[in-house]
């Protein structure tokens, strides 16, 4: 149950627009700021930040909340919304929800006395996010790879949330799937599902498609030369990723760092996932 009836949403891309539309469809008032370049506001209104602050009971910021540590991430606006004391003061005594609050850096100190919640840290957000991420990764592979996923030799490194969903999807499409993991328990689960299990830091084999989900260097130049000379490599891990891209270029291996895939391939689904995570925080915290 949501106890807040009016929301302000500042910055972000289509994910935040779909989040706003879904909240409005639930009967809440929603105000936008930082979307003056958006082609479709879905019946909502873009207003100045000060007006938004006056009309909303809670604030939702984008994922990531900032890309430079100074301004709100506003890819659909030419206006800069600076993260400073004046901005935080506008939302005094109002809960603020954002994604990847660690990106705030020094600005995080400004929020020390504010109710700041990171919806991106939620377990349910990560689990639900694995589906559009996996679908987007496969869509990218279909576009960039000259062959078909069906019958291709695929390697998925990492058996976390995304690795589990992605490897199942690839298997369902008829790919020959190998999956790497560090834990023996995960390696046993991989084998139980009929896939080849490999230790993450001792990879072997030859592959057509490689999907990395491990956020640390797995594919250095030596490993790329060993397993990826004929492969398209798609790195799904957050920065700095798990692939030596300079090494891949020297070896003439096509490697793509596919960041924020859900925002590009499934913004509507991602927007609803954000909304649900915010609602869950509101209910648990009785806001």
Written account of the structure:
The protein is of the alpha/beta class and 287 residues long. Helices cover 37% and strands 16% of the residues. It is built from 10 helices and 11 strands. The strands form 2 sheets. A 6-stranded parallel β-sheet has the order 8-7-6-9-10-11. It has a 5-stranded parallel β-sheet with strand order 2-1-3-4-5, with helices on both faces. The longest helix has 22 residues. It is elongated, with a radius of gyration of 21 Å. The mean pLDDT is 94.
Q: Can you lay out the helices and strands and say which pair or pack?
A:
Elements: E1 6-10, H1 14-25, E2 29-33, H2 49-55, E3 58-60, H3 85-90, E4 96-98, E5 116-118, H4 123-144, E6 153-157, H5 161-172, E7 176-181, H6 184-192, E8 196-199, E9 209-212, H7 221-227, E10 232-235, H8 245-250, E11 255-257, H9 261-265, H10 267-285
Parallel strand pairs: 1-2, 1-3, 3-4, 4-5, 6-7, 6-9, 7-8, 9-10, 10-11
Task: Summarize it.
37% of the residues lie in helices and 16% in strands.
Which terms summarize this structure?
287 residues, single chain, six-stranded parallel sheet, alpha/beta, five-stranded parallel sheet
């Amino acid at each position: 149950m949501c106890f807040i009836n009016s929301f302000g949403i500042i910055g972000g891309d289509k994910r935040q627009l779909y989040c706003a539309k879904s909240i409005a469809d639930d009967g809440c008032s929603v105000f936008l700021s930082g979307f003056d370049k958006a082609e479709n506001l879905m019946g909502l209104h873009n207003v100045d930040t000060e007006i938004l602050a006056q009309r909303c009971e809670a604030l939702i910021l984008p994922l990531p909340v900032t890309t430079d540590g100074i301004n709100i991430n506003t890819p659909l606006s030419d206006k800069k919304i600076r993260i400073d004391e004046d901005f935080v003061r506008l939302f005094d005594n109002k809960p603020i929800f954002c994604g990847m609050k660690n990106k705030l850096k020094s600005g995080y100190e400004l929020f020390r006395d504010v109710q700041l919640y990171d919806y991106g840290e939620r377990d349910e957000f990560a689990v639900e996010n694995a589906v559009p991420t996996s679908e987007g990764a496969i869509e990218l592979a279909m576009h960039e790879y000259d062959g078909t996923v069906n019958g291709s030799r695929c390697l998925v490194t990492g058996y976390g949330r995304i690795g589990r969903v992605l490897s199942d999807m690839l298997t369902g499409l008829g790919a020959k799937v190998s999956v790497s993991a560090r834990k023996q328990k995960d390696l046993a689960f991989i084998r139980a599902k009929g896939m080849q299990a490999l230790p993450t830091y001792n990879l072997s084999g030859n592959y057509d498609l490689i999907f990395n989900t491990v956020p640390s260097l797995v594919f250095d130049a030596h490993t790329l030369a060993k397993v990826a000379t004929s492969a398209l490599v798609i790195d799904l891990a957050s920065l700095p990723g798990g692939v030596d891209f300079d090494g891949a270029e020297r070896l003439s291996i096509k490697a793509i760092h596919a960041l924020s895939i859900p925002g590009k391939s499934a913004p509507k689904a991602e927007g609803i996932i954000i909304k649900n995570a915010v609602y869950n925080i509101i209910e648990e915290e009785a806001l």
